[in-house]
Amino acid sequence: MKGFQQTLCAAIFTSAIFFLTGCGGGSGGGGSSSSSTTPPAGGVTLQVVSFGDSLSDVGTYAPVASAVGGGRFTTNPGQVWTQNVAQYYGNTLTAAFTINLTHELSPQSGLGYAQGGSTVATPADQYDFLTAVIGNVEMPVNQQVGSYLSAHTSFNANQLVLVWAGANDVLRAGTLPSAAPVVQTAAAALAQIVGEIVGNGATHVVVVNLPNIGLSPKGLAQPDGGANLTQLSQLFNSDLTTALQANGLQGKVISVDAYTWLNGIIANFQSYGFTVSNTAMACDPSKTPDDTSLLCSPATYTTANADQTYMFADDLHPTTHVHALFAQYVEQQIAASGLGH
């Protein structure tokens, strides 16, 4: 670990000029529409704003992770689903904050607020997440939304707001029955955050429930084969639905069922072009620093085309191919709600 940190730091400072000019937040996510002349595939142009964790992070830690060819929690240099959805609606999504060389978050012009390691509402300093690489800097989702509102005051009808969080709350909760209150509190807090988003002017809000974390490679590797993580995923989803209904939000958001969707993809993985389902990782653990997809690159792939033929990049995060398929599913659910096609 120490050797890796020294290598990473050397690479960072050797490439500092490149990082500061090329790996900042970018300007694409700040505008209300894309500069591209190509009409958006959805039939409407929408500015995408995203809140959540590593599943939606478009590059918060890229200035550090790029030193070894990483940058996002997938099979780099592939995109995550939020970027694909943004492009579908004629926009580009870049990070709202990026980490700098001293492990501090610096505001950028993008609208991708999701950050790897984030919980729904628990401060970062209470949860270690790749501490040696990025420190304890990630914002919980309630703080992400607060940061957005501080900078932009409100949401508007020309935006599509994407919300996907809770996985880290489940992963840190422990085992049932003692884990239940942690998960239930997180689900209730997320519903309140969604209410805050809607209450501040958002009219197109996508809320994604948790996938079956028990079916991830990390889940399968547990002594119980992932049963506890599956039950906690189900508990979170059930409580989130209940809380959204109780807060009068169910009819005001577009609910996306990632749990059922991922179960279906895993059950029929070969028909979607995968050769390996949820049983192995595209990023070779023996080659990938810290065994995390954040630091995964083509040089660390298990096979040359692992980003397309494997379902999981590391033991938790989807590959580029899964992200692309999920983006298409989300776009279909948005269209079914009457927005675009």
Class from helix and strand fractions: alpha/beta
CATH topology, which one? Rossmann fold
Across the major sheet, the strand order is 1-4-5-6
Radius of gyration: 19 Å
Instruction: Please tell me the total number of domains.
Output: 1
Number of helices: 13
Residue share in β-strands: 5-15%
| Helix and strand sequence | HHEHHEEHHEHHEHHEHEHEH
Largest sheet, if any? 4 strands, parallel
**Proportion in helices:** 25-40%
Q: Quote the distance from N terminus to C terminus.
A: 48 Å
Q: What would you give as the CATH superfamily?
A: SGNH hydrolase
What is the 3D shape? globular
- Low-confidence spans: 1-38
**What is the tally of beta strands?**
8
What's the average pLDDT? 88
CATH class: Alpha Beta
CATH architecture: 3-Layer(aba) Sandwich
Written overview of the protein:
- The chain has 13 helices and 8 strands.
- Helices cover 38% and strands 10% of the residues.
- α4 crosses α13 (320-336) and α8 (180-199) packs parallel to α10 (227-246).
- β7, α12 (306-309) and β8 form a beta-alpha-beta unit.
- It has 341 residues and is an alpha/beta fold.
- A 4-stranded parallel sheet has the order 1-4-5-6, sandwiched between helices. A two-stranded antiparallel sheet has the order 2-3.
- The longest helix has 20 residues, at 180-199.
- The model is unreliable at 1-38 (pLDDT under 50).
- The chain has a single domain, classed as 3-Layer(aba) Sandwich (Rossmann fold).
